[in-house]
Each structure stands twice: as structure tokens, then as C-alpha cells.
Design goal:
4-stranded antiparallel beta sheet, 126 residues, alpha+beta, single chain, 5 helices
Length: 126
């Protein structure tokens, strides 16, 4: 039994436990594929990634992968690229989809439903 290796493994496990650290919150914003991308490092070590495009916003959460590496270095090396690509694809899928119930060309104009003598009260607006 190698006591030195066992001791070293125990120390490494304690050092890599992200829950024991408090991180300085950071936020990075950039423009990607005609949308706004925000990458936020929270003080508990979690990472939130927001993507907004054409009024649609989606968010994903990720855990810190390398607690001893700076957040901007992780972003630079593409650690969260898979999460970002999935997020962008999700927003683009929503933008390109269409509802079978709500269509812009099927909305009736208000003037067709009202005649000249109709009065709308506050109770009628709900």
C-alpha cells in the first residue's frame, strides 16, 4: 500500500472540491450570430450563460470545470463552447418555428367586430 499516493489523492480531492471556494463574480458580454451572449460566473462557482436574439432568451447553467483557472481563460480556451452552441441552436430553433394556432395573418381586426354604436368599457377589455 502506497501511503504517499493515498495521502496525495486525498489532498487533491479536497483541493478540487469547488463547493468550498468563493469566486469573484464576473460577467462577459458579446455579440454572437446577431444575438447577445452573456457568460456569468457566480460567487458559488456556477456559470450561467444567457443568449438573447429577436426577443427570445434562453439560459443554461454549467459547473466550473477548472476552479484554479481564471474564468476568462476558460472562456478563451472554449471550455463552455458546447453549452453555448447548444443554447444558440435552441434559440434559433424557436425563432424558426411557427405555431399552428397563432398566426399573424389570421388575427381579426377590431373594426370588423365592432359597429359604430359599440362602447368598450374597462370590464370588456379583460
Amino acid at each position: 500500500m502506497d501511503v504517499k499516493a493515498l495521502f496525495k489523492k486525498g489532498i487533491e480531492q479536497q483541493l478540487l472540491d469547488v463547493d468550498d471556494y468563493i469566486f469573484t463574480p464576473k460577467q462577459y458580454e458579446m455579440r454572437v450570430e446577431d444575438g447577445d451572449l452573456k457568460c456569468i460566473l457566480n460567487s458559488d462557482g456556477s456559470v450561467n450563460i444567457f443568449y438573447s436574439k429577436e426577443g427570445i432568451t434562453d439560459v443554461r447553467a454549467a459547473a466550473r470545470k477548472h476552479p484554479f483557472t481564471t474564468f476568462d481563460t476558460e472562456l478563451h480556451h472554449g471550455i463552455y463552447d458546447d453549452v453555448i452552441e447548444d443554447l444558440i441552436d435552441s434559440v434559433n430553433e424557436i425563432i424558426n418555428s411557427h405555431s399552428k394556432y397563432f398566426r399573424i395573418n389570421k388575427v381579426l381586426p377590431m373594426t370588423a367586430a365592432l359597429d359604430g354604436d359599440t362602447v368598450i368599457t374597462e370590464a370588456d377589455k379583460d
